[in-house]
């Protein structure tokens, strides 16, 4: 729920509420919260208890840089390992992204875009790398990127470049294209930061 952005930064993680929601006792919920704190997805605050982690701008930038490197590595491996069925599935999702763009539906675009990236990670055929990349998805923040001017249009172009490199088996080009797709530089970075509500930052 945190990774997908259903729980937002700063939101309190109440043991009782979560135990009731998932029909379990508080003990496994407590253990799960400890694990989330250990991975940095949650934090313990005085008088607030456990909450979804909020990030400072420098940390957020560092995480996007790491995300860029991980996505690039996934694409590099996908260019070497992806099956025809997997590239076909990515093309099908890309076609749905085009439809969402044409009807100017950023929420649908964001959700479909996540599907595209999940397929890219799967095509890398490396479970650990894929799991680490998914855990760093930064959903509450990446969702904001979708709303930047021309971002959906640029995403379509960048996905097409990634797909072409994967189909050509060009691992270096795939890695470069995927890394650049996620990386935020220059005006894109300042525009992105300006869209983040204060409550999502420390």
UniProtKB/TrEMBL annotation:
Is Repressor among the key words of this record? no
The molecular function terms of the Gene Ontology recorded here are:
DNA binding; DNA-binding transcription factor activity
Record bears the keyword Membrane? no
- The name this protein carries in UniProt is GntR family transcriptional regulator
* SUPFAM superfamilies to which the protein is assigned, alphabetical: GntR ligand-binding domain-like, Winged helix' DNA-binding domain
Q: Which residues form the HTH gntR-type domain?
A: 1-55
Which source organism does the UniProt entry give?
Paenirhodobacter populi
**Which PROSITE patterns does the entry link to?**
HTH_GNTR
Q: Which UniProt keywords apply?
A: DNA-binding, Transcription, Transcription regulation
| Pfam families xrefs | FCD, GntR
Source domain of life: Bacteria
């Amino acid at each position: 729920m945190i990774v997908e952005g259903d729980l937002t930064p700063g939101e309190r993680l109440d043991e009782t509420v979560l135990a009731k929601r998932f029909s379990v006792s508080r003990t496994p919920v407590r253990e799960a919260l400890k694990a989330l704190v250990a991975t940095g997805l949650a934090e313990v605050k005085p008088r607030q208890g456990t909450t979804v982690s909020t990030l400072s701008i420098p940390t957020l930038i560092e995480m996007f840089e790491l995300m860029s490197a991980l996505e690039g590595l996934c694409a590099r491996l996908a260019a070497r390992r992806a099956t025809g069925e997997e590239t076909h599935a990515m093309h099908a999702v890309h076609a749905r992204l085009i439809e969402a763009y044409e009807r100017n539906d950023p929420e649908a675009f964001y959700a479909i875009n996540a599907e595209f990236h999940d397929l890219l990670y799967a095509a890398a055929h490396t479970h650990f790398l894929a799991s680490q990349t998914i855990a760093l998805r930064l959903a509450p923040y990446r969702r904001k990127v979708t709303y930047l001017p021309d971002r959906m249009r640029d995403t379509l172009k960048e996905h097409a470049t990634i797909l072409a490199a994967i189909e050509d088996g060009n691992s270096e080009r795939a890695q470069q294209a995927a890394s650049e797709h996620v990386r935020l530089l220059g005006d894109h970075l300042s525009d992105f930061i300006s869209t983040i509500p204060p409550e999502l930052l420390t």
